[in-house]
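User: Hi! I'm working on a homework problem where we have to compare a predicted structure to a textbook description. Could you give me the structure for the chain below?
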Amino acid sequence: MTYLANPKRYSYKNFKRCGKSGLDLPQITLGLWHNFGGKNINLESK
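Assistant: Happy to help. Predicted structure tokens:
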């Protein structure tokens, strides 16, 4: 079985260009640091 992604999967999101690289990022983005880490998040995220 072959997976075919919906070609319209990104058409509903608003993207902004980031910095000099021009990387397109969604306007609402949560970084990976929100998903990983222990009790002392401030020390781990530095």
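For your comparison, note the following. Residues 9 and 26 are 13 Å apart (CA to CA). The chain is about 10% helix and 15% strand. Good luck with the assignment!
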